[in-house]
Design a protein that fits this description.
Layout lengths: L1 H9 L3 H30 L11 E5 L4 H12 L3 E6 L2 H14 L5 E5 L6 H12 L4 E6 L16 H29 L2 E6 L2 H4 L8 H21 L4 E6 L21 H11 L5 E2 L3 H12 L2 H27 L1
């Protein structure tokens, strides 16, 4: 039978054979990509994060994704350096973690990333001196209170977006890296955003999206710079997560809870330089990639204009 098929193929014109070969290769490539997606999302084991070091440093750990990361890392047996601006919230989170994971050592560092950042980074350096900080989660970030055009963004918000999202992430990374380089191991996770990677534009959130694009490129460059030094650098790209920043209270299939996201996120640390850990988000990413950019731009603009209108109504009610 194989000989018969082979003879029939030989009798076909060359252009048809080329067409069939390209079709077969396309099907093979698609099948392999599906198998890889299944493996990395459901079968690939997470790395033992304690192999990087016994301490993890997390910025923005008092709410949302950062808080969930803190609990999940403590569950994995890591000690924590929690960096946030509110000492009372830091204390509450620390006590909650210790009540659940009593053996966890925790050090709190009060840093206002929108304030005197150099002084704050100096305090971080003092606290981590002598600690084998093996995992860094750069989670701290700010966004708009609601969608607005660039000319409506006030100077304080503009400054905070750049200082917290760009300068804060950069300087904390720079403070932690020397210890990792010395020990020849470490994992750095920078929290990016689908606003900068998944969709072609994020109108009315332009500065926020641009700062997250910086985080993505910054992460990729560091991944290449430090890979041979035993340091894994990764930019995680979540889409919507049920957080205060996203103004979403309830989780759903496509919008995970912060704990759901953090559990998925830990399994990806140490692998690809860019990823979206929560697997339903990857389905939305694939959908967005298949649509014309003009369609996504138009949909996103309409969606954000609706957010802007609701935000303006809330502001006007507060003033009354």
């Amino acid at each position: 039978m194989a000989d018969c098929i082979l003879e029939q193929l030989k009798s076909q014109p060359a252009w048809l054979l080329v067409f069939l070969s390209l079709g077969f290769l396309s099907i093979l490539k698609f099948s392999l990509s599906i198998l890889k997606w299944v493996y990395v999302n459901f079968l690939r084991p997470g790395k033992n994060l304690k192999n990087y070091g016994s301490w993890a440093l997390i910025t923005g750990p008092t709410d949302g994704i950062g808080k969930a990361f803190a609990f999940q890392l403590a569950r994995k047996g890591l000690n924590l350096v929690l960096v946030g601006r509110n000492p009372d919230k830091l204390k509450d989170v620390s006590e909650s973690i210790k009540s659940k994971y009593g053996s966890t050592q925790i050090k709190n560092v009060v840093v206002d990333f929108s304030g005197d950042l150099d002084d704050g980074v100096s305090r971080i350096k003092e606290v981590i001196q002598g600690l084998d900080v093996g995992v860094l989660i750069n989670n701290v970030g700010v966004s708009y209170p609601y969608a607005r055009f660039l000319h409506e963004v006030d100077d304080k918000l503009l400054s905070d977006l750049i200082k917290v999202n760009v300068e804060g992430t950069t300087k904390v990374t720079q403070a932690v890296l020397p210890g990792m380089v010395k020990r020849k191991k470490g994992a750095i996770v920078n929290i990016g955003s689908g606003a900068a990677i998944v969709i072609p534009s994020d109108p009315l959130y332009s500065v926020y999206a641009a700062t997250k694009a910086y985080v993505d490129q910054f992460s990729r460059c560091l991944y290449v710079e430090y890979k041979k030094s035993g340091i894994d650098v990764q930019c995680q790209v979540p889409l919507y997560v049920a957080t205060k920043m996203a103004s979403i209270r309830r989780s759903s299939f496509f919008v995970p809870s912060t704990d759901g996201y953090a559990r998925a996120a830990l399994r990806w640390i140490g692998y690809e330089p860019r990823c979206t850990p929560y697997w339903p988000h990857s389905l939305l990413w694939a959908l967005a990639s298949s649509l014309p950019e003009s369609v996504i731009d138009a949909w996103r603009l309409k969606f954000c204009l609706g957010i802007r209108k609701r935000g303006q109504l809330k502001d006007s009610r507060k003033k009354e």
